[in-house]
Amino acid sequence: MGKTESRFLRAARASLEAKLFHRVVLAAKWEPGLAEHEILEPGVEIFRIRLTSLAWGRSLFPQIAKCVEWYWRIYKLALRLKPVLIVGHSLAGLPISCILAARLRVPAIYDAHELETKVTNLRGVRLWI
Question: Least buried of 3, 13, 51, 75, by fewest C-beta within 10 Å?
Fold first, then answer.
């Protein structure tokens, strides 16, 4: 399964067992050594997004470029898969979740697990954004 967090897999299993959905697709960032697409178990698959901008560094501009590239790749994936529900789990993913929900005319859920602006040590412009 790679580095997929167990809470996402538990939620996917629960959705399938409750017969809410017949397929659950997770999207995550690709990391070396992990497959870009993997079927984790029947009805649950993951698409790991490989960012070309990942090697550009960690200063502000490359971070913005990574975010834009992530949003674009997720947007294209969602248009291809046509989900009936969008679930976001991070503050960074909230804008694209809302954009996709509006574009696809499906509900969106933001399932926050912590107050991210306080736990990631953001400061200055990054915290404001």
Answer: 3
